[in-house]
Amino acid sequence: MLYYPLTTGRNMNEILRLIDALQTTDKYKVATPANWKPGDPVVVPAPTTIEQADERLKESYDCKD
Fold this sequence. Notes:
Blueprint: H1 12-28, H2 50-58
């Protein structure tokens, strides 16, 4: 739910972008950075086990420090 003051205009493109980001984070269990648009890179949460970390190494994630 978004709250805007009645005196503040709405940017429908931003609301649609937000819906796309929310659907992506829910479906793929990832995070989307600021100004993310469909097709842009996402943030994959850190693995919680060594096994998950090893599995990710096999999946060719593009990792950044």
